[in-house]
Design brief:
This protein has 116 residues and is α+β, with helices and mostly antiparallel strands. The protein contains four helices and three strands, in the order αββαααβ.
């Protein structure tokens, strides 16, 4: 998910995907090394079919309290998620500051296809 408000919470993300089955602890915000939100996140759904249903919300408005911003969704592979959330320490990237603890503490979303 891209275009998220920087102050979006796990609850906000789950609410955005109301009616869809998100994996427990499956919402991961992507943070910069200084712990600031990037406006991007991953959301894991219980099945590839649920992820495909989530794509109906692509370019949807995120919520009135955030000024009804539009967010974009993209189905990505498990490998891309793992590489972003658990980067090789010898590589440098925007996601280098992401740790499991940070991911679990904050929220946002992006559709993830388990089949890829």
């Amino acid at each position: 998910m891209k275009g998220l408000p920087f102050k979006a919470t796990v609850g906000d993300i789950v609410e955005f995907f109301d009616g869809l089955k998100v994996v427990s602890s499956g919402v991961h915000i992507i943070k910069q090394p200084d712990n600031r939100a990037t406006g991007m996140a991953f959301v894991e759904f219980i099945s590839p079919e649920e992820a495909e249903k989530a794509m109906a919300k692509d370019h949807g408005t995120f919520g009135a309290k955030y000024g009804d911003r539009f967010v974009t969704l993209q189905v990505v592979s498990r490998a891309e998620v793992d590489t972003t959330l658990h980067p090789d320490p010898q590589q440098t990237s925007l996601a280098a500051g992401v740790t499991p603890e940070v991911s679990a503490a904050v929220a946002a979303a992006a559709a993830i296809g388990q089949q890829q």
